[in-house]
Write a structure and sequence with these properties.
With 498 residues, the chain is of the alpha+beta class. It contains 16 helices and 23 strands. It binds manganese (II) ion (MN).
């Protein structure tokens, strides 16, 4: 049994996540390396495009570690959570248990444990004067038309100016000066904190933690209420309180085991050009005036590791998908307990298209589910509801259900003029290029009820199946048949002769 099977068996034997989950990035990288899932690129690679190009080619197959990125001594890792199965393994659950485990953690957060600076590896090395991010960190430029280097895997941590409760999100951050960066804040919690600070004429203190484990990355993407600290969800996923340490230049608490932390403040009443940048929908978002972070300190481990996410590739898409699926499932089940499972499809960039498996008992219910999903998150643009006999994780099955159980004049729900994703380029059609933020992202919603009627005449919606097809032990039967066929033909061994 190899280490990977051992790890899987460990999870299947029901060992608690706290023992099985990888507690830090380094533990997880060691596990990937021991099982042939970490590709080491030892030769120097350019930070501009070359590093991202190689990581993109490996995405979904192997994580990559670049030992000499752009002449830096600090290695860059990418793609270490680019498969659903890997994320389940990092969580210590079988793949089918991913959403339930994440949801349980989101609903039962564990308060963080504050540790002293002496215990916090993220503050082993401190830079507080003459900061030059380009000299300190190997920050790649990813896509062809990006406006330069971007931090793409930084957990942005801030405190609610009113309540002091922390929020964690991943925002794209353009590094356009030695100690100055521009940040995109979509209309969510971080932006609300910033707007409250700015209204009082104050900066918003933030910390950007780079190089954390898969579970802390995932927790940062939970869709939870404004005063739920995502680091507490990370603690619940780990099965132990997350150790955090106070920043050196302000009150924000960061994961003590982070590889690198950039401390700073988002300045009030300052905007500087940011973008273009290739985003998760696989298009560029435009150059616009954005909020600015003034860096106040950089701290890191000795021999730190820098993490970059290649935009729009599987690591980026799945990071958003799994926490969203878990929270969307929870949201839908609150009103509709007969919702069984959901998937944010890869083709829908793991954000826009939601597939819902539903045990319909009364006509019309699927449309209520569709409307509920539209309200669950503004990114949701298209919802397909299917019956429980349809595999909601198989795109072919979804298309089959639409092909055979859906009529557009009867089963289609359209809501015009709702709020959608500002990063969806189709929302910009007919808008002036300089549309203010409150006019951006206006989007129609489309729901497809692809469920069959509750009552139907015999055989009309009876799915073709062959008795015994689920039970046949095909692998064993095939091997036996080959031996017999070789004997029938009078040859030694069919496989050997081929
Ligand atoms: Mn939040």
């Amino acid at each position: 049994m190899n280490a990977r099977d051992a790890a899987r068996n460990g999870t299947l034997q029901g060992r608690p996540a706290a023992q099985d989950a990888a507690p830090t990035l380094r533990h997880w990288l060691e596990r990937l390396s021991a099982t042939g899932r970490l590709a080491t690129i030892a030769r120097p690679v350019a930070l501009e495009h070359e590093l991202a190009a190689i990581a993109k080619r490996l995405d979904g197959q192997q994580a990559a570690v670049f030992l000499a990125p752009g002449g830096h001594a600090v290695p860059v890792v990418s793609g270490f959570m680019s498969k659903r199965a890997w994320i389940a393994e990092a969580m210590g659950v079988p793949e089918a248990g991913l959403l339930a485990r994440f949801r349980e953690a989101a609903e039962h957060p564990l308060p963080c444990k504050e540790v002293d600076r002496a215990e916090a590896v993220c503050q082993q090395v401190v830079h507080s004067e003459g900061i030059d991010l380009h000299a300190l960190l190997p920050i790649p430029t990813h896509s062809e038309h990006d406006n330069g280097p971007y931090i793409t895997a930084g957990l942005v941590i801030a405190r609610n100016p009113r309540t002091g409760v922390q929020n964690v999100s991943i925002n794209r951050i353009q590094v356009h000066g030695p100690d100055r960066m521009a940040i995109l804040m979509l209309p969510r919690h971080l932006l609300a904190f910033y707007q409250a600070a700015e209204a009082a004429g104050e900066p918003l203190d933030v910390a950007i933690a780079i190089g954390v484990d898969p579970l802390t990355m995932l927790a940062s993407q939970a869709i939870s209420p404004i005063d739920n600290d995502e680091l507490e969800i990370a603690g619940a996923l780990h099965g132990a309180p997350l150790p955090v340490v106070k920043c050196l230049t302000h009150e924000v608490r960061v994961p003590a085991f982070a590889e690198i932390v950039i401390e700073g403040r988002i300045l009030p009443n300052v905007r500087e050009p940011e973008g273009p940048f290739g985003e998760f929908p696989k298009y560029y978002s435009a150059r616009e005036a954005r909020e600015v972070i003034q860096v106040t300190a950089v701290t890191h481990r000795e021999r730190p590791i820098y993490h970059t996410i290649v935009p729009a590739e599987m690591e980026h898409l799945l990071l958003g998908a799994i926490p969203r699926e878990a929270t969307l499932l929870s949201h839908l089940q609150r009103s509709h307990p007969a919702v069984k499972d959901v998937e944010l499809s890869v083709g829908g960039v793991c954000r826009y298209h939601l597939w819902v498996q539903f045990d319909k008992k009364r006509e019309g219910e699927a449309k209520n589910v569709i409307l509920c999903a539209f309200g669950a998150h503004y990114d949701i643009k298209q919802v397909v509801v299917v019956d429980t006999d349809v595999d909601v994780h198989d795109p072919g099955e979804i298309e089959w259900a639409i092909a055979t159980r859906f009529q557009a004049d009867r089963d289609l729900v359209i809501v015009a003029g709702a709020q959608g994703s500002p990063l969806d380029p189709s929302t910009t059609v007919g808008q002036p290029e300089d549309a203010p933020p409150h006019l951006q992202g206006i989007s129609a919603k489309m729901g497809l009820d692809a469920t069959r009627p509750v009552d139907y005449p015999a055989h009309v919606f009876t799915r073709v199946r062959i008795p015994g097809e689920d039970r046949a032990d095909v692998a064993q039967l095939v091997a036996a048949s080959n031996t017999d066929f070789a004997a029938y033909l009078g040859v030694g061994d069919l496989a050997g002769e081929a």
